[in-house]
Please model this.
Amino acid sequence: MSVLITGGAGYIGSHTVLYFLDKGEDVVVLDSLEKGHKQALLDGVTFYQGSIHDEALLSDIFQKHTIEAVVHFAASSLVGESVEKPLDYYENNVIGSHTLVKQMVKHEVKHIVFSSTAATYGEPKNIPIKETDPTIPTNPYGETKLAMEKMFRWCDAAYGLKSVCLRYFNAAGADPDGRIGEDHTPESHLIPIVLQVALGQREQVQIFGEDYDTKDGSCIRDYIHVMDLAEAHYLALEKLRRDNTTSIYNLGNGKGFTVKEVIETCREVTGHEIPAVVSERRAGDPATLIASAEQANQELGWQPRYPELKTIVEHAWKWHVANPTGYDKEIAVNKR
Ligand code: UDP
Model:
């Protein structure tokens, strides 16, 4: 029996593949490589380059392999871009997932672990955010992820498809052993941007707004180690195997850091000065996002192994130093 991981060559996807391989799972990856990196796929993975829109390819994969469950990452995931191109997000995320799930139903694959997001909540009413809090997304990215979560629920009622939707807060860090890491083009996430400044690849980091209602005026986020996210996917699959029930969980550390605190931690870890300037707020950014991950803790038995921001940054830095130009130059010895 195999697990199909869509988007398995992307940042969180590839770390999850690594975790699943280390657990002895048989993994099949489907990734279009539009954003993902083939070099992020280590030995032992069966890889198909292609899209979740490709019904024939999906059908072929489901016929060739005995797929027990799907872990579904393949999606567009940039908030700003989603506001500019909502139709692309509906197409890539909602229509793509529809095609995938249609094939799952056809081939009687009954379990899916889904990569969802804190963006499903929009501007939070309560901090920390609980799974039962209102979901009113403020951008098409969050809206399309929420639409997919709802689609899975209806597919449970109709076809018995059981899902675990994992709402991540801010994924960060890299494989502690330095085998794989984070490489987006263009990069938009705070920690890799700050580390690029430390590497001399950018002159400075911009702090998007210092007039928020927070302790130092910059936004607060809950940073969660990518390998802790990876482990949560594995525990979610184990729960599906055990209980065969549909559920939704937040994944975060339950602790928030301001943008300024993140930059300061990066200075400490890297020993670089890291110049920072304050600029305008970024559209659509809530002031504070912190997860209550109590439910994942109780029901999945999930406990982050790397909760300290310093550790998260150290692991990210280790990969950035070894791979200053990311995956494309293949400086890293990228083997398990
Ligand atoms: N941020 C920033 N400068 C940057 C990139 C991000 O100040 O160059 C801020 C951003 O406004 C947010 C936080 O850092 O408050 C985390 O942003 P990121 O894009 O990493 O993740 P998001 O919270 O959007 O998922």
